[in-house]
Every structure is written in C-alpha cells, then in structure tokens.
Specification:
By secondary structure, this protein is mainly alpha-helical. It is globular and about 60 Å long. The protein has seven helices and no strands. The longest helix is centred in the middle third of the chain and has 34 residues, at about 100-135.
Length: about 190
Amino acid sequence: MENLTCICLGIGLSAACGFRVFVPMLFMSIASMSGHLTLAQGFEWIGTYPAVITFSVATCVEIAGYYIPWVDHLLDTMATPAAVVAGIVATAAIVSGTSPMLKWILAVIAGGGAAAAVQGTTVVARGASTLTTGGLANPLFATIELGGAVLTSLLAIVVPVLLVATMAILLIVFGRKLFRRRLKMQPNPT
C-alpha cells in the first residue's frame, strides 16, 4: 500500500506541475523540510534551504509572469516542456521501494504524462481565452491555474490516493461527455 501511496503522490504532484511548474516543487521542498514528505534517495536536495529559496523565487517570477499580457504565452511555450520534466522529477523524487527501472518508467509515463495532459489543457484554455477576449480574461485563467496548482499540490501531499481517484473520476466523466457529444455530432448513416 505504501508504494501505491507514493505513486499516487508522485502523479498528483506531477499533475500540479502542469498548472504551474514551480508551485508543486516548492510544496515538495517545504513538506520535506517539515518532515511531512520523505524524498527518494538522490532527491534529498529538494528538501534543502537552497532549494526552498530557489523554488520560492522561481514560483514568484512564474506567477507574476502569467499576469503580464503576451508574457503568459511566452511562458506557456517554455512551460510545456518544463512541466513535463518537472512532472518526471516530482514522481521520481517520491517513488521509492521499487526497482530503478520501474521508478523511471512510472516517472516518465505517469508523471510526465499527467503534467503534459494538464499543461496541454491549460495551453488550449489560454489560447481560447486570448482568441475570444483578446487576452483580457487571461489573468482570470492565471488565477484559476494558480489555484489549481496550490490545491492539487496540497491534496497530493495530504491525501494522495483520494486525489488520484478524484482525477480519474473527473477524466472518465469528462471523457464520456466528450464521447457522447462527438457521437451526436456525427451524421446518421441511414
């Protein structure tokens, strides 16, 4: 059960990396330093004072950048690959007690995949916001994304299994709705 909890925690933090790259890393660092999170061997550096300071500064710069028009799009361009890498690191830093091969497979596929899925969704939403409002609603999306990163990071650390189960249910519900909508849009062959 401990391995499942670690995997769920890693995936949850990786998903949060899709909202904001540095917020979950800052949460991991603080949780590790306060004794609420045990990092895997080789990733203890995340729970150090230099890491907390670095993640704090990076988080502040990232948050501020998303409130500046057009800079948010530049950040999205850079954040997409960075989110995937951060998702991989977040999962690898949490998963322990497994073989190194399994750990990195989980980190790349589950961690990187969760971060990429969330980041891709935010990029599409921000693009739609820019097209429909000329970028005027982008600060609102930035606030929602920041809230998503904070809430997801916090829930991942506090109740990781519940967070992953909730995310899976949401994906199933939204996936079924999209599937049904596509079926309705297809022309009837008769």
